[in-house]
Design goal:
This protein has two domains: 206 residues, Rossmann fold (3-Layer(aba) Sandwich); 174 residues, 3-Layer(aba) Sandwich (Rossmann fold), CATH 3.40.50.2000. By secondary structure, the chain is α/β, with parallel strands linked by helices. The longest helix is centred in the last third of the chain and has 20 residues. Strand 4, helix 5 and strand 5 form a beta-alpha-beta unit. The strands form two sheets. A seven-stranded parallel β-sheet has the order 3-2-1-4-5-6-7, sandwiched between helices.
Amino acid sequence: MPNAKKVLIITYYWPPSGGSGVQRWLHFSRYLSQLGWEPIIYTPENAEAPVEDNQLLDRLTETVHVIKYPIWEPFNAYKALTGKKGKKLQTGFLNEGGKQDKKWLQKLSLWLRANLFIPDAKRFWIKPSIKHLSDFLRDHPVDLIVSTGPPHTTHLIALGLKRATGTPWLADFRDPWTNIDWFDKLPMTQLAIARHKKLEQAVLKEATGLTCVSRTWTEEFEALAKRPVKLITNGFAPSDFTHFDKKPDRGFTILHTGSLNADRNPIVFWRFLAGEVAKNEQLKAKLTIQLVGAVDVSVLQSLNELGLSKYLEQKPFIPHHEVIELMSTCSLLLLPLNNVKNQQGIIPGKLFEYLASNQAILAIGPKTGDSAQILQGQANTLVIDFDEMPKWTQIEALCQGEINRTETLQKYSRQELAKEMSGYMNELILKSSK
């Protein structure tokens, strides 16, 4: 594209890696290329991704250039030590059951992860990437650098490039850093905690601009950075729903897509559902609980203890386009949020696709949270607290009638968000030129 501004986007997650981490900048890069930008993606050649979705490769356009560089990760040594070579490791603290590692090995690996691999296990990619990209930028200068994390290693690569080249830099946070809910779960020494905070402050101070995905987390980053942070949420791609055709649900299917860890296990709702099944013969005959993606063993235990396992239909990870298709035949989409300390700012990426499906949505989480504020402005949605039992009449009312959220959802389309991101990126370039 003649006269296009060039942007180097540093991201760990990129197709064929699947999951939520890849979606944000996959879509931004597509639409930015239509808004006067030439995106150049920098990503690992051999990333350790928990899932793969080769269908996402079809989303890439000829105007998006991809540079790949090898990364060494300690996961490889860990898998060899534990006999898991060739297997995918789940991120976070999700336990899918099966054979577990020895407790001493789990504790040792967690301690090493917490205290030696700062900011994360991708840290060995930092120095080689700074050198590789410094050489690249010498011959192929860009107008802006973007880093998106987690992993926050990407921000440290961008920090090194900013210091070496002076190129304007946007640090995009899809999750908090030291304010993330599991930060306190890691057995870190005070030295390790101080190191994290020092690196976080360097990024917040030296980046030309900062973006975040939710109102609460944006405010938290502003408090840490003592400067403005731009809020640009995630969204949905209307192209995903071009051929979307809602079909009648022959039964009553409750669908959850994506990983379901212990913090998201909606125990009170399962109890409610078990109580309704016990007294509602019609529901007993029609109910299906469909869980698609990685499911923590605690969720399965809860369903089994309450006699709901017979209604469970569990699917492993499936490609993104199949997830969208699956939404067309359910009665209710379930959206349990993480019951953790930073719950107010959590907005799952799937929330926007749930809304775009025009299906009824039951969310479980804080009624004053950012997800609740988005949902409460949309038709056929209900938000209940973690310890709240809904009434069956509420569920029935939620699932009745035609649902059309086209007008109220437009501002969350990936195209509109890309325009907002493009405008902010232009501001950063202009700011740096003064």
